[in-house]
Amino acid sequence: MNTIHKIIGTWALPLLVVSGVLLAGCQNGQQIGSSDDAASKVYVAPGEHDEFYGFFSGGYNGQLGIYGLPSGRHLFTVPVFSQAPVNGYGYSEETKAMLNTSHGFVPWGDAHHPELSQTNGETDGRWIFINENNTPRVARIGLDDFKTQEIIEIPNSAGNHASPFVTPNTEYISAATRFSIPMDDKDMQNMDVPIDSYKENFRGTLSFIKVSDKGKMNIDFQILMPGFDYDLSHAGKGPSDGWSFFTSYNSEEANTLLEINASKNDKDFIAAVNWKKAAEYVKQGKGTMMPGEHVRNYIDHEEGGIAKSETIEEVRVLDPRKLDGLVYFLPTPKSPHGVDVDPSGKYIVAGGKLSTVIPVHSFAKMKKAIENEEFEGEVMGVPVLNYDSILYGEVENPGLGPLHTEFDGKGNAYTTAFISSEIVKWDIEKTEVVDRINTYYSPGHLMIPGGDSQKPDGKYLVALNKITKDRYLPTGPEMFHSAQLIDISGEKMKLLLDFPTEGEPHYAQGIAAEKVIENQKRFYKLEDNGHPDAITSEKQARVERDGNEVHIYMTAIRSHFTPDNIEGVKVGDEVYFHITNLEQDWDVPHGFAIKGANNAELLIMPGETLSFKWEPQKEGVFPFYCTDFCSALHQEMQGYVRVSPKGSDVEIAYGTGQ
Amino acid sequence: MASVLFVGCGGSGNGDQASDQSSQENENGLSSFEQKNGIGPVTEKLDLGEIDKELAKKGQNMFETKCSACHKMDERYVGPQLRNTTEERTPEYVMNMILNPAEMVKKHPEAKKKLAEFMTPMPNQNLSQEEARSIVEFLRYMNKNQDVDEI
Amino acid sequence: MSKKNRLWMALASLMLILVYFFPLWGISMEAPQYPEGIGMNITVNDITGKEPHDLGNINGLNHYIGMKAITPDSIPELKIMPYIFAFLIATGLMIALWGSRKWIVVWLGLFVLLAIAGLVDFYIWGYDYGHNLNPNAPIKVPGMTYQPPLIGSKQLLNINATSLPHIGFYVALISMGIASMVWWKEGKTDDGGKSEKTMNNNTRKAA
C-alpha cells in the first residue's frame, strides 16, 4: 500500500507540471526547465550544505560574492577592492592600507575574474585571486578565513583585464593591459602626448606575478607588447604547460570609437607567451630593470592583523625585440575575447566575438609552425604564425557573438554566445555543435567548477547573464544580474535555476565544498593575537592620553564593553578605540559604532582586534553600542563617551560596572 | 520529457512573447505581409502620400535624440547607413524595426542578416507609432534630398 | 596468592595510570545555538572544555544566570586527586608484591569510599554552582536553579545538560572489579579442593 502511495506521490507532481506546460503552450518554452525534476536537483534541504562553493566576481562592486551551488544561495561577500561599511574593511585602522596604491588611497575597484589556486592542474582550495580592472591590481583571498590577505598593484599597465589566470602549479598569475598607454621606451613612463599619436607611442604589457608557497605575490617580469588591447588569458596545461595565451583586439591600434574602428581587421591575435623561457631569461638576468612604482599591501592575522604597505620602485621588463622565442602571435578571427585551453592542454579555443565560427588552434601544430618558422609577418619583434598552420578546426554555427568557453572533462566544450543569447555545447575533437540551450539573457562568461583546470567537475554549468530584464520581480531601472544553473550531467543541457547575483559578476569559479571546508577558521585564537594594541583580558582595559591622541584599549564580550563609561575626551582629540573581541566561539562577532563618527562600523571577529578612529566635533555625551545582535542582552551592550570642550580640565576616567 | 516538449516547440522556443497575428505562414513562420513589412505593431499598409515637411522635421528631432548615436546617413557606423533605407524597405518595415527590434532580429530573415553583419542588436528606444512614423517621413525626405544632412 | 593473581592485582593497580590520561567525568550540553554541542570534562587534576574554548564559552553563558565562573585553579580537590590515585597505585602494587588477600579488602574498601566521597564532592560543587547565584544576574527565573545532574540528563532553560562517567571512571571500576576477582579467587584456592567443587557446582548451575 505504502509503495503505491509513494509512486503516486512522486509522479503526481511532474504530471501536473507537464500538463501545465502543455496547456500553456509553446510561448512558455523558457519555463520548461523549471520542472519538478529541476526543483529537486537544486533543492538543498534546511541545514544541509551545497555541493560546491561558487566564487562570483562582484564587477563594479569591487568584491567577491560567495554562492552555494546548486542552490544558488548567497552565502557571503568578501570585501576586496572596495571599502565595505558592512564590516569596516578599508575604514578600520587595520585594513585601510589594503587599498593603498601608487595613486594614493583608492576606495573602489572593478573586480572581474576570480581564479582559484591550483596544484597539478587541479583547484586546491588554498586561495582565490581576483583582478582589479580600473587601477590595475591583483588580490589574493585566503580560503581559510575568506578575507583579502594581499593586494599587489601592476605598474606600467591600464585596465588590468586579462588577469589573474594561474599556471597549473600556481607558479605565476597573469596580468595584462586592456588599455595600452603611452610608454616611453627609455623609462616606460606614461607620457603627456597627443592621443592620436597612439600608433607611435602606445604600448601594452603582459605581466607575470610570481606566487610563493605562502602566497606572497611579486611581479617577476613584464613583457613589452604592441599597443593592442589585451583582453583575456589562460595558461597552458599538460603538453602546453609552460605557455600562456592572451587574446588581443584593436590590432588596428585605434584610439577613438573602437566599436567601429577596432572591428575592421579580419583577424586579431592571440599572444602565445613561453613563460618558462621568460623565467629562464629572468634567471639569467636578461631584460632591463625599469622604473615601475607599485604598491603591495598585505595583512597577516598571525602577525597582528594590521595591513602593511610597501612601495616597489622597479620592475624587470623583457622586450621581444631583443629576446627570441618569448612571444608568438596566433592570428585569430575578429576581435577574440576569451581564450580557453581544454583540459588535455592540446587545444586553444578562442571566442571571436564578431566571428561566425569558433576557431580551435592546435598546440602541437603551433609548436611545429614555430619550429618550421611558418611566419606570415612580424609585429614589434613578435612573429605572426600562419593561421592555416596552427588551426585545428573551426566550429561552425556556434551562435552569434561567441565569448567564453569552459570544459566538462568529458570531451565537450561549452561556449557562450552573447548576441544570440545561448550556450552551445560542442565536441572538441570533432569541432561540431552537439547541443544548445537558450539563456536569459545574453551570457558573458560561463562557469563549470574546475572548468578551466585539468580536472573539471562536469556536473553543473553557470551562465553569467548580462541582461536581466523580466526574470525577477522588477526593482526599478537598476537590478541584479541573473545567473542560471544548467545541468550538464547528461547529453542534453537542462536549465535548472535562475538566481540573482550582486554587482556584476563577470567570471566565477567553483570548487567542491570539501576542498574548502577542511581549512576553515572559525575564530582567531586570543593566545595567537599579535596585534600591538590587543588586550586579552578586561583587567588590561584602559584609556591613555598622549597629547591630543586618546587611546582606548577596550574589550567586548557578551554583553558588555570594558570600559563602557569614558570621560576626559575633548573636542579636537583624535580618539582611537582598540577593541578586542574576547569571545572564542564561532559566529559571535561584536560590532562597534559611535554616534556621529565619519566612518563605518567595525565588525570584530572573535579573538580579533580592530581599531576605530573618531574625531569628536562637539561636546556632549556620545553613546556607542554593539551593532551585531550578539546575545539576549545585546541591546544592553552599550556605553558612553563624555566629550568636554577643548582645554577643559576633565581628567581621563573610565570603568565598567562601577 | 521536458526536452521532448522543448524540441516539439521548434528549435528556437526562446520565450519571446510573440504577438501572433499571422494566418498564412511561409517557410520562415512569417506571413507574406510580415515577410515584406516586418513583424510588429504595424500590421496594415500605410497610405503615405506626399512628403510632409513638417512631420519630417519632427522626425529629424526624434532621430537626433534616439537614433543618431548609431546611425549616419551616408556611412556605416554602429548600425547601417540610412540614406536609401526607404528605397530598400517598406515604411511599415522601418516602423516595425524601430518599434519591435528584439523580435525582428530574432525572427525576420532580413533583420537577422543585418545583426550578423553589425553584431550589435538594435535597441528598443520605446517610441510611439506616431514618432516612428515621423522618422519614416524624415528618412523619406533625406532620401529625396540626397545632398542635405538636415532639413 | 598465586603468581597469576599477583599479576592480576598488579594490573588492577597499574591500569589506574590511565586515569591520568583520560577524563573521569563529562558534562555535555546541547542547545539550538550549539548545533555541534558544547561540554567539559573533569580529569584527575583539571576541568577542560571538550573543544579548546568550550570552558570559556560555558562560563560566558553561565554569567547570564549569575553562576560563578568555573576556574579549575579554585577547586582544591583537583590538586589532591592525583596523589590519591598515586597512593592507590602504590599500595595496590605493594599488596600484589606482598601477596596478602586480606589487604585487598582494605584497599578495595578505601577505593570505594574514596569514589563515593568523590561523587559526593562533585554533587556539592554542582549544588554550589547551581544554587549560589549572583543576585544581580541579568537572567533570573524565580525558583530556577541550575545544578547539573550527578548522572543523567536535565533540561536547564534552553540547555539540555547530560552528565556521565568518562573513560577514567570506567577504568577505576574495572580496576575495582579485577581486585575483587583476585580476592574472590584467592578465597577459593585458600580452601583447597572444597571450594573448587563448589565452583564446579556453580558452573553447572549456571549452565
Considering the chains and any ligands shown, give keywords for the structure:
heterotrimer; A: 658 residues; mainly beta; Methylamine Dehydrogenase, Chain H; 5 domains; ten-stranded mixed β-sheet; 8 helices; globular; B: 151 residues; Cytochrome Bc1 Complex, Chain D, domain 2; 0% strand; disordered N terminus
Q: What's the overall average pLDDT of chain A, rounded? A: 93
Give the helix proportion of chain C (percent range). 40-55%
Q: What is the CA–CA distance across the termini of chain C?
A: 28 Å
Number of E-state strands of chain C: 5
Q: Can you give the mean pLDDT of chain C? A: 89
CATH superfamily of the largest domain in chain A: YVTN repeat-like/Quinoprotein amine dehydrogenase
The number of strands of chain A is 45
Question: How much strand content do the residues of chain C show?
Answer: 5-15%
Q: How many helical stretches of chain C?
A: 6
Low-confidence stretches of chain C: 192-207
CATH class of the largest domain in chain A: Mainly Beta
Protein name (chain C): Cytochrome C
Keywords (chain C): Membrane, Transmembrane, Transmembrane helix
Organism (chain C): Fodinibius halophilus
Protein name (chain A): Sec-dependent nitrous-oxide reductase
Please, could you describe this protein's structure?
The complex is a heterotrimer of chains A (658), B (151) and C (207). Chain A has 658 residues and is mainly beta. Chain A is 10% helix and 43% strand. Chain A is globular and about 85 Å long. Chain A starts with a helix and ends with a strand. Chain B has a domain at 53-151: Cytochrome Bc1 Complex, Chain D, domain 2 (Orthogonal Bundle). Helix content of chain B is 48%, strand content 0%. Chain B has helices at 2-8, 32-37, 53-66, 85-88, 91-99, 101-107, 109-118, 129-144. Residues 1-23 of chain B have low confidence and may be disordered. With 207 residues, chain C is of the alpha+beta class. Chain C has one domain (3-190). Chain C contains six helices and five strands. Chain C has helices at 3-14, 54-62, 77-98, 101-131, 167-190, 193-206; strands spanning 25-31, 34-42, 47-49, 152-156, 159-165. The two termini of chain C are 28 Å apart. The relative contact order of chain C is 0.18. The chains are: A mainly beta (658), B mainly alpha (151), C alpha+beta (207). Chains in contact: A-B, A-C. The A-B interface holds A 14, 18, 21-22, 26-33, 35, 37, 259-260, 263, 353-354, 356, 400-401, 419, 421, 438, 440, 492, 494 and B 1-3, 5-6, 9-10, 12-15, 17-18, 76-78, 115-116, 119-121. Chain A: This is Sec-dependent nitrous-oxide reductase. Chain A: Keywords: Copper, Metal-binding, Oxidoreductase.
